[in-house]
Amino acid sequence: MTENASLDTRTRLLNAAADLIAATPGEDFSLRAVCDAAGVKMPTLYHFFGSKQGLTEAVVEHGFDMYLSAKSASESSGDPIQDLRMGWDAHVAFGLENPGFYTLMYGKVRPGYSPEAQSRPSEILRSLTSRAEAEGRLVVDHEQAAAHILATNIGVTLRLIIQGRDDPELSAGVREGVLAAITGTAQTDDDGERLGHSIIERAAAHPDILGAAETALLIEWIGRLGEG
């Protein structure tokens, strides 16, 4: 078996397993069914993965590889809060496009256990909330902000997968609610600091209104005023 053919066979098995998981969420899946769907014999599956647990872990790892590949292809806006907004939407889109992988990545839980591969996108999320904290954009610490976003993002995505359809209004509503909570703009604008936060986040959410350069300048100026 050539290297390319070997990689293709392995990928077919991973995709077959993910499709079976998506078709019967929350239920066990048959290795025989995976082999039949991929068009290979059982010894081939054991050659690549060793066991059912090995296959399951490989599906999770492959799912995160796909997810991170999609994220790396997107460009940063230059604003950490806007990047969090874009990351949220990319997360939901990946889940809806790849429900089999996603339900294994985030839907299968064991108390006290987190797949090692799950730490990679979490680090990206924490780097964005850390930047936002350094810019004075958060009213909670960056670890707590990341936890808020991850928990709600996963919850919304799993809900949409269960529904079997997208719901942009639901996703956007929860997204903006959690961003408002971590940036302080969910509170009543009863003082200058909160008003400044509100203006900054409004501008960051809609950079097309003023233009990218002008939006960045406005955010910098308001930040300086807040330091005064």
Automatic annotation (TrEMBL):
Leader peptide range in chain numbering: none
Keyword Membrane: no
Pfam families (UniProt xref): TetR_N (PF00440)
Sequence ranges assigned to domain HTH tetR-type in this UniProt record: 7-67
InterPro entries xrefs: Homeodomain-like_sf, HTH-type_TetR-like_transc_reg, HTH_TetR, Tet_transcr_reg_TetR-rel_C_sf
Keywords, ordered alphabetically: DNA-binding
Record-annotated DNA-binding residue ranges: 30-49
Top-level taxonomic group: Bacteria
Name this protein carries in UniProt: TetR/AcrR family transcriptional regulator
